[in-house]
Amino acid sequence: MPHIKSRQTISTGYLDGQLLIAMPIMTDKRFARSVVYMCAHSKDGAMGLIINQRAPHIDFPSLLERLEITPARTRNRLGDLEEHPVHVGGPVETGRGFVLHSSDYLSSDSTLQIDASVCLTATIDILKAIATGGGPHRSILALGYASWSPGQLESELAANGWINCPADPDLVFSADLDEKYTRALATIGIDLSHLVSDAGHA
Fold it and tell me: Whose C-alpha in 103, 145, 166, 192 is 20 to 30 A from the C-alpha of 110?
């Protein structure tokens, strides 16, 4: 398989606000065919959320009930929250929730603004806001996150385990999780069928 040059952020060399796309040679099954939104990247390491893996055996209303945000008797008032998937954000701290969301919601104490259109909040207040209709216009709820120690992500990029690309908010917040992988590859002109064929002849 030919080496694909990493498209790092020109100004800093870091990938905050970009997508990581797992290549077919990815050996860690937890990240196979995954698309990761990069929340933070520096010399100290990196952190991101997988945005195309659905968490099994739990939906958003059930999670709210467990957190005693929305009692069971009010489930019929949650409307489209029934269709709001809970994501597997990564293998680290899988019991902890993170909300990646549009920038129309901002908590001065707890929201990290990643770029002009995407923010990250990890407190229960945003879940309460979403449950009552006062949350961000677009959001992804993820349990757990992905992390890399200093230099680890750079090594994986150099080994062609990942390719990165700009993050289109429409792709990031799309409800069609199954299409995110091929859509992300398409943004940088890569056809998945060709990529798999190349990998098979490495």
Answer: 166
Residue 92 CB neighbour total at 10 angstroms? 11
Question: Which pTM value belongs to this model?
Answer: 0.85
In the block, which residue shows the tokens 């899988």?
94
CA atoms within 13 Å, Cβ hemisphere of 162: 23
Full pLDDT tens readout for the chain, 202 residues: 233 333 343 345 799 999 999 998 888 999 999 999 999 999 999 999 999 999 988 888 888 888 888 654 555 555 566 667 899 999 999 989 999 999 999 988 889 999 999 999 998 999 988 888 888 999 999 999 999 999 999 999 999 999 999 999 999 999 899 999 999 999 988 887 766 545 444 4
* Residue 53: exposure state from Cβ atoms within 10 A (0-12, 13-18, ≥19): buried
* Helix, strand and coil percent figures for the chain, each rounded to 5: 30, 30, 45
Give the separation between CA 79 and CA 24, rounded to whole angstroms: 38
Domains parsed from the chain with CATH numbers: 18-52+147-200 (3.40.1740.10), 60-144 (3.30.70.1300)
